[in-house]
């Protein structure tokens, strides 16, 4: 049996996907950390251009360059210190140079990337559907973490996610193309309408435009039929977490809580278990 054939065996493939997903999760940490900074640099350059000034010349900064380094001491991270999960455990969650703590979110994102890949293969087999599920959920993880940090959902992720959903559904991978197009339109329009109704009533903005685009992207992947479940799940989880933060963490009611992570979680749940949830609850509701 060839190496490729051995790796594709049902008993082996989920483990291969797990390792691949752990590596992707490591890259997602780079995206989560650097993309907002890249956006900030771009905004500063645009502001300087509008003001008729020369943009500040700086070193190249993107998802590849410079090499990852400790934000506290600037020590470059070696290849052996960049092995997903294992390096964080070996270093006991601390920088090898200065001993500064390394956030537990780094291994959690890596683990999420690996588990997503492994479960997608177990759920859908070695298919294009599994690949699409991985790509969608990896993007959702990145968006959720960035929204938690910055309360932003970058167009650099939401818009490619939307178009990728439509591209996968050209072959009706997750939903018929017509349902995917309607899902994108309805997803954006639903939260846009909620935004303006809330603003007209309260004079405040209840959510950002990034939330509209994220729900549009989820609709493009899963079709319009999944949107009620996604909205319901995200609203319930968001309400419960919000109440818990106010009661237990004494977080002020006027302090905004990002909605993107709840939309992302609801989208992933609907992707993998949406049909099962609907089949379970429809008879009960009826």
Extract low-pLDDT stretches: none
Strand content: under 5%
Assign the structural class, choosing from mainly alpha, mainly beta, alpha/beta, alpha+beta, or little secondary structure: mainly alpha
Secondary structure tally: strands:
0
As a percent range, the share of helical residues equals 55-70%
The CA-CA distance between the termini, in Å, is 53 Å
**Overall pLDDT score:** 87
Gross geometry: globular
| DSSP helical segment count | 10
Radius of gyration equals 21 Å
Give a quick account of the main beta sheet: strands, pairing sense, barrel closure: none
Model description:
The N and C termini lie far apart (53 Å). The longest helix has 38 residues. The chain is mainly alpha-helical and 286 residues long.
Offer a quick outline of the entry:
By secondary structure, the protein is mainly alpha-helical.
Write the topology of this structure.
Blueprint: H1 3-7, H2 13-50, H3 86-90, H4 105-124, H5 128-150, H6 155-168, H7 177-202, H8 209-222, H9 227-248, H10 260-285
Helix pairs in contact: 2-4, 2-5, 4-5, 5-6, 5-10, 6-8, 7-8, 8-10, 9-10
